[in-house]
Amino acid sequence: MLFGISIIRWILIALALFFIIDRFLRFIKKETGQTFYKLFSTLFIWGAVLIISIFPDFAYFISAKLGMGKNLNTLIFFGFVVVFMILFKILSAIEKIEKEITKIVREMGMKLKI
Amino acid sequence: MAKIFIIIPAYNEEKVIGKVIADIKKEGYRNIIVVDDGSADKTEEVAKKKGATVLRHILNRGKGAAAKTGLQYAKSQNADIVVTLDGDGQHNPKDIKKMIKKINDGYEVVLGSRFLNKKNKMPLFNRLANFFANVLVFLVYDFWTTDSQSGFRAYSKKALDLIDTSSDRYEFDSEVIREIARHKLKVTEVPIDVFYTPYSLSKKQKQNFINGIKTFLKILNS
User: Fold this and answer.
1) Between B79 and A65, where is the model more confident?
2) What's the gap in Å between the CA of B7 and the closest CA on chain A?
3) pLDDT tens digits for B152-167?
4) Phi then psi for B178, rounded to 5 degrees?
5) What are phi and psi of B197, to 5 degrees?
6) Beta carbons of B51 and A106 less than 8 angstroms apart
7) How far apart are CA B83 and CA B99, in angstroms?
8) Is the Cβ–Cβ distance between B3 and B80 less than 8 Å?
9) What separation in angstroms does the CA of A36 have from each of A26, A28, A32, A43, B123?
10) Is the pLDDT of residue B222 over 60?
């Protein structure tokens, strides 16, 4: 415990700060592939980790504001739902890309008949 | 005279593809299309040397993708009958004749069945895995076949026009069954020989377990 904060929370704080600063710097330097959407996502996800690591009661506050009372499990459950939705979206995108690749490979194969 | 095309999807088959092509030629077929699915070995060179037309995938996309490339090519060449068979030498080109006869008799799709030929000695694991796949295909597509995973099949022009698949991997064979059921194509099965050599078995073992699970999930998801 340091300043009344456990080691795991310090690690989370450090990680969150690292990712937020890193993304900010990349965005400012206008590195390729650094979109506003990526910056916003990083801020949203790692920002939430940072706030909850510093103020653990914040999760209860959100939970209460959303009308779930002190039931944090419900909030965690919704977190999982969101994660699965994102996962599903990513898998669909990969499948679509796979199909496109096959189409290109097939077209090339037919044109480059040996 | 019907335009007959023989399609062979092949991936790293340099050791056997030459013999497969030579055996098909011995049966009198000339339009032999090898779809080299991104092989890292000399499959392409060997097939070309033996006189086959080679369509090369620059990346490995799977057996289903390769078969579909072959079928599309045959269609673009106005094929009347197309026969697909595996490139690992497990099928007997002598069986092509009876499949084509069935198409000429009016069937739109002919499925080669390894299980209708009692002489075939298939390893128990393969037998069970295939039976399980047949039951699953029946439950999902409401179509019973004794060999839903056989790659040895013949298609008429009408079947070529109607069958539309999207699977790149081993689910392709099951997807064709779905299309047969969907379009109510006139279908029959013929007994075929199967040669399980140490070579073909070593390839099969790699495919069976993981791809079996993937195929299972894809059929359920289709």
Assistant:
1) B79
2) 13
3) 999 999 999 999 988 8
4) -60, -45
5) -95, 160
6) no
7) 8
8) yes
9) 11, 10, 12, 10, 57
10) no
Looking at residue A81, what is its pLDDT? 85
Q: Is B57's CB within 8 Å of A101's CB?
A: no
SS3 B120: coil
Distance CA B115, CA B200 (A): 17
- Residue type (1 letter), B169: R
**B44, B48, B65 member nearest A106 (Cβ):** B65
What are B35's strand-pairing partners?
B9, B55
Element housing B102 (H / E):
helix B96-104
pLDDT of residue B66: 96
Q: Do A101 and B61 touch (CB under 8 A)?
A: yes
Instruction: Return the H-helix or E-strand segment holding B68.
Output: helix B63-76
Look up the ipTM and state it: 0.82
Of B197 and B54, the one with more pLDDT = B54
DSSP string of A89-106, one letter each residue:
HHHHHHHHHHHHHHHHHH
Report residue A101's pLDDT band, with 50, 70 and 90 as the boundaries: very high
Q: What percent of chain B has pLDDT over 70?
A: 91
Helix (H) or strand (E) holding B56: strand B53-57
Cβ within 8 Å of residue A47, ≥6 positions away: A16, A20
Tell me the two tokens of residue A105. 């490979």
Q: Specify whether the CB–CB gap between B155 and B81 falls below 8 A.
A: yes
Report the chain A residue with the minimal C-alpha distance to residue B51: A114
Number of residue pairs across A and B with CB atoms under 8 Å? Answer: 45
Nearest to B20 by CA among B182, B168, B151: B151
